[in-house]
Amino acid sequence: MGLAFLVPLALLGAAAIIVPIVVHLTRRRKSKVLRFPSVRFIEKVPYRAESRRRIHHWFLLSLRALAILLIVAAFARPFVDRTAEATVAGTGPTERVVLLDHSWSMALGDRWSEAQQAARDAVSELGPLDRASVVVFARGADAIARSTSEPIRLRQAIDTARVSDEGTAYGPGLKLAQTILEESELPARELVVVSDFQAEGWTGEEGVTLPAGTDIRTVVVGEGGIDNAAVADVALNRARVEGRERVTPAARIVRTGGDEPREVEVVLSLDGQPVQTRTVTLPAEGADGVVFDPVTIGSDQTQGSVSMTTDELPQDDVLRFVLSPGRAEFVRLLVPPGAPDAAFYVERALRITEAGEFDVVASTGAVPTGDALDETDVLLLVDRPLGSAELDRVRGWVDAGGGLVVIAGERGGWGTGGETLFPGALGGIEDRDGRGERLASVEYEHPVFEVFRGPRQGDFSSARFYRARTYDVQASDSVAILARFDDGSPALVERRTGDGRVLVWASTLDATWTDLALQPVFLPFVHELARYASGATDAFEFFTAGQIVDVTDARAMESAGLGAIAEAISASEERIVLAPSGTSSELTDGESSHFLELSEAGFYEIRPPGRDDLRPVSVAVNVDRGESDLTPLDPEELVASLRSATDVAPAGDSERAAVLRRADQERRQSWWRWLLLGAFGILIIETVLSNRLSRRTGRSGHARTAN
Amino acid sequence: MDRTATSSARFLDPKVLTRIGNLELLARTVVDGFLNGVHKAPYLGLSMDFAQHRPYVPGDDIRHLDWRLFARTDRYYIKQYEAETNTDLVALVDVSDSMDWTSDDERPTKLDYARFLTASLLHLSRRQRDRVGCVTFDHDTIERIPASARGLDRSLMALERSEPRGPGNLRNAMYEVSAGLQKRGIVLLVSDLYEDVEDVVAAIRHLTSRKQDVMVFHLLDPGERELPAGDAVSFEDAETGEQVPVIPTKLRDGYAEVIDDHVEALRRAMVRERVDFVPVDTSTPLDHALFAYLSLRSRSTRRR
User: Fold this and answer.
1) How far apart are CA B201 and CA A607, in angstroms?
2) Residues of B contacting chain A (CB within 8 angstroms)
3) A50 in contact with B at a CB cutoff of 8 Å?
């Protein structure tokens, strides 16, 4: 150990100490110049400028010299070199990353305090040349202290860390640790993972490979399973009874661990008030379901929850949701005046729903105008031609988001100009010979057919088509053939245009050209066709903590039941978000603040600023249910996957390491700051003293230069 | 010039004189005031000769009554005199840079004071029918107005347009000036004499060798006799630009001693050279200098 300088050449600047002396002895005092007729007699007066050839104020001169020396020393960057000690101790400069799991399962028992203590221990083991980072991770990861050698900062970061409401995912935390370790210039690297090591957060496909030579250490907290029950899921089944919508909540309660059956109480609450209570008996390592009585939803944004008797892990004992009355899609059926029964099967199919999903109106009139058309979600033309004037109206309506379904039939078709709206051109009627044709190719990936995708989920092959219109499909990216007949001719074609979509069915949907209407798949097929054409999606009843919603994505917000928020934001209106913890933030259309980060479990409330009279939009957020599964992961499995195939410590560049060590020591000690501060203080004292001396000299009439 | 100012012109402070723009008016004002105040002095009429008699009228000064004629004719007659016109008076005015200085902004510079003094002397002399001329110089002759009966106006003009433009050299200038003095007369030298005494004497000898009655008016500003008190200051020589950093407070006594020695040395040297030497403080009125001049005229007249 000894005093060393990082920039010893700067010490040459100490020669500047002679500057104040030389300046004093050589410079002429800057004084007032007085014009005088002649200085010949002044020069004859005996006078010796002794004052400048003599140093009168040694103390002031010493202060100035000391200030210069301190400044020079500061630039030389002095430090106490402890390299030898560190080398002897075998603790070379190490970059250490402490990965601290703060998923909500860490709130169980003493897990979190144990984890914090383990993290503190990890950073307290730092050698004089080491640096450390603290990364908390759950579903995401955040470096709360990054590559610092200050133990106080590290401890403060650990002390202020809190358990989150998010589930465990090792990937993001390990990725961030990998980045920090790769960026480090220190020769040794170490990763310390402090977690309860839930198997749920590990997929084995994280794709994280730590730098070669990284030492990996794991600290397991809270070993051993517990008897934990959780509300795993809630289904909100809607039904329309006598014109009123009723919702039947059904919850699934899952229990992990335990030996004996356990009785728990399950409570349904709406707007904070318990409305129904059920008691279930949960077997060990088992599950049970609870079905509540139907409830009527009277108003939008009703906050509901299903909770159960709390246990050691209370976060998963409640599941929150937001309920709003369902909205029926308005389907307008237009049939030709001469064939009022052409839409019989379709209309019947649309009217048969459990929850009244469709509001159906059939007419033989023209395409409506104005508000009547705007209120329509789906316009279904059954064997009805579309005139040119109607075509223009419909085009604008579809571009604005409307759904148009054309059932060809004998009379179906459209006038000139239809090629910009429809996916092709309808041709003549083509009769199929013999037993007719079948649907041979169906795009089961498409939403219209997705419900029929699984086995025994619907059989289109049993339907026969005896007659159909030929269809010349446009070659376009926006056009897709969703189903074909046996001969390859199109049966169902879609074109997306603007915000809406157009679907053309080349046959009929009655019992004349096909027997599809008599098949079991008919009703769900018509429902899916109308639902897809309307663009309606199932509303999100709740989110999971850690999800982020882009409030400027209108379609995503609409599907999440937050369409009103998206509209307000797009209209540059601000919204205040009140988080479950009580903190508030603003939502705007700005780059940085248009994301709604749902990090806390509970109900988020979103309202216009300064408006308390309106019922806020609520967003229910629940903890990740997967976190309830405390099945442990073998830490060795994780460690093994993190080690690279070429896990050999790099050949040490001792010179580079030595330079790093010296720079790191100097940076940590930072004596130069104190030296500069001292120099600054000395210069202030010198200024005050010299000013006083100058004033005193001036008053006594003995003007002499100070030093 | 208003009446009040005229009547009190004898005691006009040099600060007041600086406000009179016209040099001729200034000279007349000063001389008239001066003569009004000294008309009873024995110097009156010294340079005048009898011209004629005229009958006495009440109000005439009875001292001018010709008693001998009264005895012969029993009538009162007043003697009238005519000025002499046989003396040349040339004023040599130093207009070097050192003359362009004053220690008080309200007070005239030495050069201005020299202008006032010279103009007044020339005017006074002209009233006594002398031929007057003027020479301005620094290290060389700048302008020369030969003595003549109409030389007053030209001399005043020369004085008015004289501007300091360089360092002075009395010896060289007097050498040149003396070459132009062919006729015996009176020479008035107005200068601050910032030269070594030996050089001043050598310069004066150029004039006295030409049989000139020389009168030296040594102009000094009070600020040149006594340095100001105060902190360190650099004195810049008005002629050479040389700067001398000093602390006036420390230098005052020594300087006053040196300048007094210089003036005393000049006075002694001038006595030895039989030259009238008149130290003039630019803060004082012109009377002292005018008296000194009339004294010289008296002596020179008697000598003639």
Assistant:
1) 108
2) 97-99, 101, 110, 192, 194, 221, 224, 227, 229, 231-240, 242-247, 249-251, 254-255, 258-259, 262
3) no
CA–CA dist B93, B133 (Å, integer): 11
ipTM: 0.77
CB contact under 8 A, A45 and B192: no
Closest C-alpha to A461, from A473, A449, A446: A449
E strands present in A551-679: 575-578, 584-587, 595-598, 602-607, 617-622
Give the gap in angstroms from C-alpha B90 to the nearest C-alpha of chain A: 25
pTM of the model: 0.52
Distance, in Å, from the CA atom of B122 to the CA atom of B156, rounded to the nearest integer, reads 9
A303 & A429 share domain: no
A7 in contact with B at a CB cutoff of 8 Å?
Answer: no
Contacts of A36 in chain B (CB under 8 A): 101, 235-238
Asked if residue A623 has pLDDT above 60, the reply is yes
Whole-number Å distance between alpha carbons of A465 and B159: 134
Confidence of residue B2 (pLDDT cuts 50, 70, 90): very low
Domain residues for A433? 329-534
CA angle in degrees (0–180, nearest 5) for A594-A596-A599:
150
Q: Is pLDDT above 90 for B86?
A: no
Nearest to A362 by CA among A345, A353, A371: A345
What are the chain A neighbours of B251 within 8 Å (beta carbons)?
A: 42, 45, 47
Domain that residue B183 falls in: 88-303
CA–CA separation, A405 and A419 (whole Å): 15
* Same-domain status, B154 and B185: yes
Cβ-based contacts of A698 with chain B (< 8 Å): 231
* pLDDT number for residue A645: 43
Q: Is residue A550 part of a domain?
A: yes
Q: Which residues of B touch A40 (CB under 8 A)?
A: 194, 237
> How many CA atoms does the CB half-sphere of A96 hold within 13 Å?
29
Does A28 reach chain B within 8 Å, measured CB to CB? yes
Backbone φ and ψ for B213, nearest 5 degrees, come out as: -80, 115
Q: Do A42 and B246 touch (CB under 8 A)?
A: yes
The answer to whether residue B22 is domain-embedded is no
How close, in Å, is residue A27 to chain B by CA atoms?
Answer: 12
Closest CB from B224, B235, B262 relative to A34: B235
Rounded distance between C-alpha atoms, residue A268 and residue A295, angstroms = 10
Ramachandran angles phi, psi of A195, nearest 5°: -160, 170
Which element (helix H / strand E) includes A631?
Answer: none
Query: Which residue is it, tokens 């050299």?
Result: B169
> Has residue B94 been placed in a domain?
yes
Which of chain A's residues have a Cβ under 8 Å away from the Cβ of B258? Answer: 41, 44-45
The pLDDT of residue A635: 85
CB A42 to CB B251 under 8 A?
A: yes
Structural domain count of chain A: 5
pLDDT of residue A471 exceeding 90: no
Please name the member of B238, B246, B251 whose beta carbon is closest to the beta carbon of A38. Answer: B238
Pair A603, A619: CB distance under 8 Å: yes
- Give residues with Cβ within 8 angstroms of B220, minimum separation 6: B110, B192, B259, B263, B279, B280, B281, B282
Average pLDDT over residues A26-53: 68
Least confident of A113-122, B21-30, B141-150: B21-30
- The CATH number of whichever domain residue A284 belongs to comes to 2.60.40.10
- pLDDT category, B183, cuts 50, 70, 90? confident
Model confidence pLDDT, tens digit, residues A227-250 = 888 898 888 888 877 767 788 999
Same domain, B56 and B127: no
CA distance B289 to chain A (A): 22
Report the range of poorest mean pLDDT among B48-57, B131-140, B164-173. Answer: B48-57
